[in-house]
Amino acid sequence: MKENSLAELFNKNLTRYQKQINVFVLQVCVGGGIMGTAMLALLKATNVLANATWLNIRNFALFSVAGTLVPVISYLIFAKGKHRKVYVSIFKYILITCSYFNYYSLAINIPYREIWATIFFAFFISTFYLDLNSVLYSIALSIATCTLLFFTNPYFMPEANASSELVLRGIALSFGAASALITALLSKKLLMGSSSNELNVNKSLATLQAVFDKASQISKSLSFSGEQIASLATQQNASCEVMSKNSLEVSDGAVQTASSVKESSELLNALVDGIEDVMNKADYSIKISNELMEDANEGKLLVVSAAEKMMNIKESVTATSKSTKELDSKAKEINGIVDFIKQIADQTNLLSLNASIEAARSGKNGREFAVVADEIRKLAEQSHESLKTINSTLNEILHHSKRVDALMGTSVSIVEDGVLTVNRSSEYYQKIINKFSLAIDSLSEISQLSKDELDESRKVKVFIEKVDSIASNTSQNLEWMAASTQENLAASEELEKAAQTISEMSKELDMIITSNTPDA
To answer: Could you tell me which SUPFAM superfamilies the record lists for this protein (predicted)?
Structure first.
């Protein structure tokens, strides 16, 4: 395939070259005929050509006109129209023939034997075509022309030294013919090498064109990708701004919630201290009752065996919304527990009143119980007031929790609250002896209720501490989210700038490719 392409390119270049040479040789023949006639006339006028006559010069001029008109007319016929296909293959032989015709007319009309050397000009013309057939045709014409002149022109070969002259001219003609053949072959080889180089250059240009086309496609793809990235960066920028605004609002709500939880924790600590005081006073009353019951040999008090509440909370806080949901749920649970503690406080107050009545009935022996019952009543009233404050604080927590939940919107998912399982078993086995039975029963119930209240209050305290920790983590997470959102916003702006830079560079690359694309 490569050899066929090279041969086709060589023939194409050779044909184009021979077309140009045809025009050049035609111009040389026309100009040479005119200038040759003028030169001979000048030499005759100056008596340089003494042996030539004006008749000889006129005859040469007529031969020159004929030798010029033939190639001109042939050129007009073959170079245009329907004969253009055979123009190159025929016209070169016409020009070579006309050059030998002019040589024959010059040799036969000018009576000088040195004229025979002009035959080398015809050899020289045939080598122009880089064609072995043209050179062989020129050699054949030279032999025929010299033979014809040998018989028709007495000046062509002098009688003296005819043999040596003939041998000398034969050697000269042989060297001329060999030189013409060698020149034609070497020139043809050079043209073949040039055609091979041209073929390689054409292939390189084709490859380069393909590379430019691919680079142009890549440039367009980069430009399109840059526009897409810029669009996505703009959308991400807007989303980051909205997210940053929402994060700041939610963070403010979380800070307020944490503050409310802290206040609730302080109030609950005060409540726990009060309940511990009530429990201590109740235990002290039971101790006194047991001392009074030692003489009666019946002082067994079966203290209630109760199973402590077990609370298993499964927390799965994967987002800020879960923390707020859990905060809302646990706040409601605290509200229920506070209501339960309130009931215990009310019942404690009622029992302390009953104890006071029984102590009054006991007379002098019940004064100490009356004092203790009065202290228990006061503590129960203080507990009731503290519970009101806690209830108000819990309402504020619920209010802030709902506000945070409203701000989070669809981002918050409901987390499964931990199931609080409380199994309480209380059994009271008391043996009341003598007239203190009612007082001992009341004090035992007060002691047990105080212990239960203290246990529940401690659980509420632990839970509020967890809520405080969750609220703090929520606030930190929201601050981190806001900072991350700002970083994403800055990254989106940088991404948009980078996308614009890519788009501009791709346009510059496309311009460079367009301006440097080789011609087809």
So the answer is: Methyl-accepting chemotaxis protein (MCP) signaling domain
**Cβ–Cβ under 8 Å, residues 341 and 348:** no
Rounding to the nearest 10 degrees, give the CA dihedral for residues 326, 331, 334, 336: -100
Question: What is the Cα gyration radius of the chain?
Answer: 64
Bridge partners, 421 (sequence order): 310
**What tokens does 80 get?**
């245009």
| Assigned token pair, 292 | 């009074």
d(CA 407, CA 409): 5
Report CA torsion sign: 245, 247, 253, 258: negative
Q: Beta-carbon neighbour count of residue 282 at 10 Å?
A: 29
Distance of alpha carbon 156 from alpha carbon 190, whole angstroms:
38
Q: Which strand (E) or helix (H) includes residue 79?
A: none
Distance CA 461, CA 467 (A): 10
CA pseudo-torsion sign 190, 191, 196, 197: positive
Q: How many helices (H) and strands (E) does the chain have?
A: 9, 4
Strands 310-312 and 301-302: unpaired
HEC states along 441-496? Answer: HHHHHHHHHHHHHHHHHHHHHHHHHHHHHHHHHHHHHHHHHHHHHHHHHHHHHHHH
- Cα 33 to Cα 25: distance, rounded to the nearest angstrom: 12
CA distance 88 to 85: 7
Both structure tokens of 384: 């009731």
Rounded to 5 degrees, what are φ and ψ at 307?
A: -80, 120
Please say whether the dihedral angle defined by the alpha carbons of residues 246, 247, 248 and 253, taken in this order, is positive or negative.
positive
Residue with tokens 């009545």: 357
Helices (H), 110-161: 119-127, 132-152
Task: State the Cα–Cα distance between residues 149 and 130, nearest whole angstrom.
Answer: 28
Which residue, among 345, 366, 346, has the nearest Cα to 356 in the 3D structure? 366
Is residue 415 within 8 A of residue 320, CB to CB? The reply is no
Q: How far is CA 429 from CA 290, 299, 355, 450, 454, in A?
A: 14, 11, 19, 18, 22
pLDDT tens series, the chain, 520 aa: 444 577 777 667 776 776 777 777 778 777 877 887 888 788 878 887 777 788 878 887 888 888 788 877 777 777 665 656 667 677 788 888 888 887 777 777 776 666 666 777 777 777 777 777 888 888 888 878 877 777 676 565 555 555 665 666 667 666 666 666 676 666 666 666 666 766 666 666 667 666 566 666 666 666 666 666 667 667 666 666 666 666 666 566 656 666 766 676 677 677 677 777 767 776 777 777 677 677 666 766 765 665 566 566 555 546 666 777 777 777 777 777 877 877 887 787 777 777 777 777 777 677 777 777 777 777 877 877 887 788 788 777 777 777 766 776 665 555 566 556 656 655 655 766 776 677 677 777 777 877 787 787 777 767 767 766 776 776 666 667 667 666 666 766 676 676 677 667 767 766 766 766 655 4
